């Protein structure tokens, strides 16, 4: 069979199974090849299809095909012949595609991957002297590539081999390739591209079978460069019980458990064993949830309970809000989860100033628990289906009375950030014998920390390391402030953002409803539109420092007049200084007409005597220029702010922005938010609005403020195109919306170095210290003059 090996590998994907009834555990993997490779034709082959193909296309090989005792050998032969005839890509069903494979195929006529190096140290490979092994689970070629004929000759010779690995599998493929390469250098035959393990086979059989892939840090590092992952399910030699059972099938060998025993000496007893726990039967675990009953996220927590693999469990929900007369969200969520093993206790806190504390409500839940064990089950977090099973198993194996997670996942769904926490006792993950459970103190937050401290002193406690069992979600309505969670982000064991965060969430999404949760906390367009209508009545003060701005002010007032916000709810404030073009007089002449249109208008004046000779962006004038701009902003704020709800800082030299600019900024509901400021050619102008990719480099400190080269350690808003809203570490002032109460509480533009930042960037840093995050809208564009 002749072929043109210069032709591209056909965009065709082949997969096989016994029948068209693909096992459930492989269906998502099968879809990954179709979903991630648009433009590829997909062809599925059953055993019947294969038998017919061999009979029609290769009748001479039928004796070999039917002579194999092991069915997997027939599949091996079939994949080789299919690719020889049609070309394209073959992938086993236990192979997941992680990204489009065009990059693997481009410019190549035959592609095969190496198994992990560890496989070359396994007994069978050592016996055969094969330190490296080519794997046939992923193959790609042009039709008729000369290697196929070479391989088929070797395959016929080896048809009587006792081990399928030598007859048709990886060992045969490896030997055939070595011989082909040796001969190819003499006759110039077409090349075979052998890819390193990290591209197609980033994990070993042991990694898959031991449960190590459940470790998020290991999974992320292993798959960082991978186009796919082969899970080594071994359907041809492992029975169904050993496949696709998930991490709960066996206790992962990499799990670390730390035990402390605070019991008095006389109260200590020999360790229990996992086998002993099984003999006694699985004890009842009471999961305890405290809720106000109206939070949309509690349905995820209830659903997470319903999907637990541990069978003997109940959910006790304590709610201190009365039921709504119609369609109560709490009772609706209970019904949606099937309502099995769920008990709802409503608490009447009438007459209590501020209602019962969280600690008091948790005690009520403990008192109503029927189980031998109680487990904290917060109403806004996500729980892996095997959380209870794994924690109870470790607790029993350690003979402990309480179990905690030493690390858990922390997710910021609105910010595209995910992390593995630092190592500590995570109180929210507590599973404890009810008999030794201390009482919660009557605190509104932090009530579970004293409980864990007491348990460490009085009970045997095991801390286990399996972070994916619990995902703590930072959704903006948590008990603690944003600054608290920023401290956790800085202390995390591993951080994922951008593409790697999305890859991790996709992996976690196989077991958790991450996308549904994200949609629940991110407002839908209809919600944003409704919020825009409600913000039309907000009182907004527009503040603009001006200097030599006469050329820009007509366009400034034109754009301001186009805003779709009620002008009777808009106030204006200007501070002019150091102008040489009559800016102050120009504005003063227009005050009467402006005051007829707008709610209030203030014109202030203060000269600083700052007129640098060089360009305003020169590094050696930044400290002084931005110091004076910060002073101007603060002076304008103190002289113009009245009873307004919001302050919109607006540059005088903007040349375009949409009429709904203010409405869209207000509709985010964020305390500090900026649009994406660009130049007329579309390039990002505002480099003060950024997100840090790590810690600032101290080498970039100049005059006490960070002045890195463009892009060094910072991502600007153009890096987040397509995302609705993103958190920022710095903001610019071209169009900056700030809740007025923040300014009243002391938020200003520091005219000094505040942790290495000044003026608008310093404002964002100061806000973070106050527990307030600044946000940016990458796709809301405004245009700045190019000068």
Automatic annotation (TrEMBL):
The keyword Calcium does not apply. Residues 286-405 form the Glycosyltransferase 2-like domain. InterPro entries: Glyco_trans_2-like, GlycoTrfase_DXD_sugar-bd_CS, Mannan_Polymerase_Subunit, Nucleotide-diphossugar_trans. Pfam families: Anp1 (PF03452), Gly_transf_sug (PF04488), Glycos_transf_2 (PF00535). It comes from the Bacteria. Keywords: Plasmid, Transferase. GO terms for molecular function: transferase activity. This is Glycosyltransferase. It comes from Azospirillum oryzae.
């Amino acid at each position: 069979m002749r072929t043109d090996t210069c032709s591209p590998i056909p965009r065709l994907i082949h997969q096989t199974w016994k029948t068209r009834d693909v096992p459930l555990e492989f269906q998502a993997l099968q879809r990954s090849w179709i979903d991630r490779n648009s433009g590829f034709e997909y062809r599925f082959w059953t055993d019947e299809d294969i038998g017919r193909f061999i009979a029609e296309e290769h009748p001479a090989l039928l004796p070999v095909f039917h002579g194999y005792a092991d069915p997997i050998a027939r599949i091996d032969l079939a994949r080789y012949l299919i690719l020889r005839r049609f070309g394209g890509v073959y992938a086993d069903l236990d192979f997941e595609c992680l990204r489009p494979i065009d990059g693997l195929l481009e410019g190549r006529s035959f592609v095969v991957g190496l198994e992990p190096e560890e496989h070359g140290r396994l007994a069978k490979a050592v016996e055969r002297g094969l330190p490296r092994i080519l794997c046939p689970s992923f193959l790609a070629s042009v039709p008729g590539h000369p290697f196929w004929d070479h391989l088929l000759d070797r395959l016929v010779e080896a048809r009587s081999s006792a081990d399928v690995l030598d007859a048709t599998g990886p060992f045969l493929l490896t030997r055939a390739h070595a011989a082909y390469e040796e001969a190819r250098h003499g006759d110039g035959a077409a090349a075979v591209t052998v890819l390193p393990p990290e591209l197609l086979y980033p994990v070993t059989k042991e990694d898959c079978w031991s449960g190590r892939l459940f470790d998020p840090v290991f999974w992320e590092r292993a798959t960082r460069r991978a186009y796919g992952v082969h899970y080594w399910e071994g359907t041809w030699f492992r029975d169904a019980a050993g496949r696709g059972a998930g991490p709960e099938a066996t206790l992962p060998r990499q799990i670390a458990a730390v035990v402390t025993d605070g019991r008095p000496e006389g109260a200590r007893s020999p360790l229990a064993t996992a086998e002993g726990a099984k003999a006694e039967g699985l004890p009842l675990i009471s999961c305890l949830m405290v809720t106000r009953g109206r939070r949309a996220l509690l349905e995820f927590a209830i659903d997470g309970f319903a999907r637990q693999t541990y069978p003997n469990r109940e959910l006790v929900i304590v709610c201190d809000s009365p039921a709504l007369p119609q369609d109560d969200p709490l009772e609706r969520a209970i019904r949606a989860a099937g309502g099995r093993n769920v008990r709802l206790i409503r608490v009447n806190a009438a007459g209590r100033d501020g209602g019962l504390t969280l600690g008091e409500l948790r005690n009520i839940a403990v008192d109503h628990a029927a189980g031998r064990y109680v487990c904290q089950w917060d109403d806004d977090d996500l729980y892996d289906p095997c959380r209870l099973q794994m924690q109870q198993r470790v607790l029993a194996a350690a003979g402990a009375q309480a179990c905690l997670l030493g690390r858990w996942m922390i997710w910021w769904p609105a910010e595209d950030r995910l992390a593995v926490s630092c190592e500590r006792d995570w109180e929210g993950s507590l599973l404890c014998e009810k008999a030794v459970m201390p009482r919660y103190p009557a605190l509104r937050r932090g009530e579970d920390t004293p409980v864990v401290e007491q348990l460490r002193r009085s009970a045997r406690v095991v801390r286990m390391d399996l972070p994916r069992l619990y995902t703590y979600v930072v959704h903006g309505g948590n008990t603690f402030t944003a600054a608290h969670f920023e401290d956790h982000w800085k202390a995390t064991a591993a951080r994922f953002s951008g593409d790697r965060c999305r890859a991790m969430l996709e992996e976690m999404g196989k077991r958790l409803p991450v996308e549904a949760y994200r949609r629940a906390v991110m407002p839908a367009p209809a919600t944003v539109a409704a919020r825009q209508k409600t913000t039309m009545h907000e009182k907004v003060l527009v503040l603009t420092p001006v200097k030599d701005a006469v050329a820009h002010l007509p366009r400034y007032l034109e754009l301001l007049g186009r805003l779709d916000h009620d002008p009777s709810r808009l106030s204006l404030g200007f501070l002019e200084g150091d102008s040489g073009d009559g800016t102050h007089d120009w504005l003063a002449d227009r005050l009467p007409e402006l005051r007829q249109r707008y709610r209030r208008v203030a014109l202030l004046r203060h000269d600083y005597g700052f007129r640098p000779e060089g360009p305003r962006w020169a590094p050696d004038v930044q400290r002084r220029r931005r110091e004076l701009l910060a002073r101007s902003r603060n002076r304008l704020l103190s002289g113009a702010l009245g009873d307004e709800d919001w302050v919109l800082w607006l540059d005088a030299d903007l040349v375009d922005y949409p009429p709904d600019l203010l409405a869209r900024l207000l509709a985010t509901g964020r305390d500090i938010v900026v649009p994406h400021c660009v130049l007329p050619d579309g390039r990002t102008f505002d480099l003060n609005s950024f997100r840090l990719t790590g810690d600032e480099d101290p080498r970039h400190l100049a005059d006490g403020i960070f002045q890195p080269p463009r892009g060094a350690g910072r991502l600007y808003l153009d890096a987040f195109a397509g995302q609705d809203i993103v958190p920022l570490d710095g903001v610019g002032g071209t169009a900056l919306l700030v809740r007025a109460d923040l300014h009243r509480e002391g938020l200003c533009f520091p005219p000094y170095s505040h942790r290495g930042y000044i003026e608008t960037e310093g404002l964002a840093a100061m806000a973070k210290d106050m527990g307030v995050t600044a946000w940016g809208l990458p796709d809301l564009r405004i245009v700045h003059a190019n000068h």
